[in-house]
C-alpha cells in the first residue's frame, strides 16, 4: 500500500519561501511510470495543480506558477519536495502531495497540510 505524508511549516510570512516535503512509503518514487505531484486547494476554491516530478526525474510546472515553483526529489530518502517562492496570502491553501499514473488518475494522496501565509 502506497502512503504519502506531507510535512513542513504551517505558517509562512509574506515574501518568504514555502517549503514542503512528501515522504513516500510502500513504493519507490523512481518506479515506472508514476508522476509525483503537488496540488493545493485554497479556501472555498477548487483543486489546483502546482506541478509534478516524474519517475525519471523530469519536472513539469503549472504555467501560472512556474516562475515561483521548484520541485525536486531525494530518491535515497524516497521523498519529493516543493518550494514556492515569494508567497502572498493568496498562496494560503491546503497542500497535498499525490501520485498520478500515466493515464492522469490520482490514486494515492497524502492527508494534506494547511499552509497559511501571514500578511
What is the CA–CA distance across the termini?
Answer: 40 Å
Estimated radius of gyration: 13 Å
- Strand residue content: over 45%
Mean pLDDT: 96
Unreliable spans are none
Can you count the helices?
Answer: 0
Beta-strand segment tally: 11
Shape: globular
Oligomer: single chain
Provide the helix percentage: under 10%
Q: Quick one: biggest sheet?
A: 7 strands, mixed
Q: In terms of structural class, how would the helical and strand content be classed?
A: mainly beta
Element-level helix/strand string: EEEEEEEEEEE
What would your notes on this structure say?
- By secondary structure, the chain is mainly β.
- It has strands at about 5, 10-15, 20-25, 35-40, 50-55, 60, 70-75, 80-85, 95-100, 105-110, 115-119.
- The strands form 2 sheets. Strands 2, 4, 5, 6, 9, 10 and 11 form a 7-stranded mixed beta sheet that branches.
- A hairpin with a 4-residue loop joins strand 7 and strand 8.
- It is globular, with a radius of gyration of 13 Å.
- The model has no long low-confidence stretch (mean pLDDT about 95).
Amino acid at each position: 500500500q502506497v502512503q504519502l505524508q506531507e510535512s513542513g511549516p504551517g505558517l509562512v510570512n509574506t515574501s518568504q519561501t514555502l517549503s514542503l516535503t512528501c515522504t513516500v512509503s510502500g513504493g519507490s518514487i523512481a518506479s515506472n511510470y508514476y508522476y509525483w505531484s503537488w496540488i493545493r486547494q485554497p479556501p472555498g476554491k477548487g483543486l489546483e495543480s502546482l506541478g509534478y516530478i516524474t519517475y525519471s526525474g523530469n519536472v513539469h510546472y503549472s504555467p501560472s506558477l512556474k516562475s515561483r515553483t521548484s520541485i525536486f526529489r531525494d530518491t535515497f530518502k524516497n521523498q519529493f519536495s516543493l518550494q514556492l517562492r515569494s508567497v502572498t496570502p493568496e498562496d494560503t491553501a491546503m497542500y497535498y502531495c499525490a501520485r498520478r499514473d500515466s493515464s492522469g488518475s490520482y490514486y494515492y494522496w497524502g492527508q494534506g497540510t494547511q499552509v497559511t501565509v501571514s500578511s
